[in-house]
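Issue 218. Parser rejects a valid record. Input:
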Amino acid sequence: MMRKLMMLAGLLPAVALAQTPPAAPPPPRPAPGMMSADPWPGMKKLLIIADVQTGWHHDSINHAMGVIEQMGREHGEWATVIRTDSQLVTKAPIVGQGTRYGGKFVNARNLDQFDAVFYLGSGAGALSDQQKADLLSFVKQDGKGFIAGHAATVAYYEWPEFTQMIGAFMESEFRVDTMQLINEDPAFPGAGVFPKTFTYTDQFPVMRMPFTSKDAHVILRLDPTKMTPEQRKTRPDDDFPVVWAKSYGKGRVYNLTIGHQEQVWDDPKFREMTRQGIRWALGLVEARVDPPAPPPAAKPKGK
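Output the parser choked on:
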């Protein structure tokens, strides 16, 4: 009896191993270069990211995305992919998830398939370290474009390299108001639709020091001589840029802080300025972006 029990005990591990299912193989990765045929041949590719999961949900974003997509399609210049998440901000292959599409090709385009990103999000964001590295290299090393929308200067505020790329961080903002603007560079693509000085109604930002106009090529700025004393106190050096362009490595960055109000996106002049700024970021038109010296501090009349 004892001998039989010992024989049975010896068989138990083998039986247990036989009943243990084999480990599932890793999900297949898409073959290199695997991608469906380009549905927009001959057009630049623009990725709009409006990820506001960790930031302010601006009412104008929905309309802005539609206008940007429409402008590219009307002029046959760029095709737009609109996303309200950050999944495509990667250079890694994107495969499906779940029981139906897990590990399979799902026709998702990563950064390698785009020529520029238009960022309309805000907040700290949820990008992984690798996604952050991919976005920076997309612009800096690959020479692609990045357009920063109205709230981008308060995005990724825990990621200093992002602020360095777009040029500045917003310290505060004025309430929606009609304010006087100065057109610093009417020769920049699209800026010529506005006169040298003009008034405009929107919510305008104040950039955090030590950023100054020496750090970017300013296109539009607020006129401090037309501000109230309280408004001017927000920047003692009277430096209030609101639209600028800059290089970032090999890439192009266009910072468009205007666009808080939905009706701004229906203004033909603003649309044309925005369209030409996108064209510049996409590499469809050239412009000099050497940052000139900032203007001397403005003084009120009579002083």
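Fixed in the parser; the record now loads. The helical segments are 2-19, 61-75, 98-101, 129-140, 160-166, 229-232, 268-282.
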